[in-house]
Amino acid sequence: MVTAQTPTNIAVIKYWGKRDETLILPVNDSISLTLDPSHLCTTTTVAVSSAFHQDRMWLNAKEISLSGGRFQSCLREIRARACDVEDENKGIKITKEDWAKLHLHIASYNNFPTAAGLASSAAGFACLAYALGKLMNVKEDESQLSAIARQGSGSACRSLFGGFVKWIMGKEDNGSDSLAVQLADEKHWDDLVIVIAVKETSSTSGMCESVETSLLLQHRAKEIVPKRILQMEEAIKNRDFASFSQLTCADSNQFHAVCLDTSPPIFYMNDTSHRIISIAEKWNRSEEAPQVAYTFDAGPNAVLIARNRKAATSLIQRLLYYFPPNSDDLSSYIIGDKSIA
Ligand code: DP6
């Protein structure tokens, strides 16, 4: 039995659009921050026993089906790389060949609302791939494991690393070079504080429709993102918050513009999201240097990244003034106390 814990990640240059739906290959590179595991993470226990008669999985204590293609891809890819496991003290001996016949029980738990649009699938599939890899003594490194997690959910590949992570889109048709690498570890830019304003709603993914109908998506993938990736890598390297904030906000806004350019249009942000953007923009313009970056994924929750603790305190005061928790506008706040990890 193995238990692993994996945090979620928030993209600052977004992944939106696949060139291969089955292998989950993206149309552009993306960059994310991995959050502190104490706030938004998945804990997964995987167990194997000759007494198990089928693969089974429980998510937040409720049994879910493993028949979906994404789960099956991850299980198949890990099983194909399984190695012998031997522990004389515990009397355990499982050979490479045994793994194909043995069944698994998987129990996964999210410490945040699964349907809050906070990329629970990212933490979930990263944790699944990592835990299974450990159980089956898979020798692949984190980047190679990320290519397996990717087949569960694209954004999951970025959760195999802490700190700042880049998902390289890759060129190969079989997806072997579409994997995550760490740009900088969690200690690199310690000042940043992440505040997430949560409104609990479920989100649906419209990525496929965007690829089919949005001309802006084509333009973004070819002309905009490659340059932005280089600029973002530079901003992270130099801890340049002004550029980091400008790029993060612009990329989030363009992602939502792509959603609006999709037919039928997709609306992930709500009035509260728009008000939070206005407050952040106004505040940044009233200061000598930007104090906060905002980004929104496929849901209305604002992820706000403050340049340092002082800015975070001021940000939280503003948010509490305009949007008290448990109001119609907002359910709660999650504060990345130790910034990224
Ligand atoms: C808006 O990784 O959830 O959060 O690959 O279909 O599982 P699938 O999609 P998913 O998409 C996340 C999109 C995003 C932006 C991002 O995380 O880069």
Strand proportion, as a percent range, falls in 15-25%
Instruction: Please tell me what the overall shape is.
Output: globular
User: Based on DSSP secondary structure assignment, what is the total number of beta strands?
Assistant: 17
Which structural category do the helix and sheet elements fall into?
A: alpha+beta
Tell me the helix content.
25-40%
Count of DSSP H/I helices: 9
Report the sheet with the most strands, covering strand number, pairing sense and barrel closure.
5 strands, mixed
**Major β-sheet strand ordering:** 1-6-11-7-8
Encode the helix/strand succession as letters: EEEEEEEEHEEHEHHEEEHHHHEEHE
**Averaged pLDDT, please?**
92
Quaternary state reads: single chain
Catalogue the unreliable spans.
337-341
Distance between the termini: 26 Å
GO cellular component, one term: peroxisome
Catalytic activity: (R)-5-diphosphomevalonate + ATP = isopentenyl diphosphate + ADP + phosphate + CO2
GO molecular function, one term: diphosphomevalonate decarboxylase activity
Protein name: Diphosphomevalonate decarboxylase
Put the structure in a nutshell.
By secondary structure, the chain is of the alpha+beta class.
Written overview of the protein:
With 341 residues, the chain is of the alpha+beta class. Helix content is 35%, strand content 24%. It has helices at 69-80, 98-101, 120-135, 142-149, 207-213, 215-237, 241-260, 271-286, 309-322; strands at 2-7, 9-13, 18-20, 25-26, 30-34, 41-49, 56-59, 62-64, 85-87, 92-94, 103-110, 164-168, 179-184, 193-198, 292-295, 302-306, 332-336. The two termini are 26 Å apart. The model is unreliable at 337-341 (pLDDT under 50). The protein binds ligand DP6. Ligand DP6 binds next to helix 3.
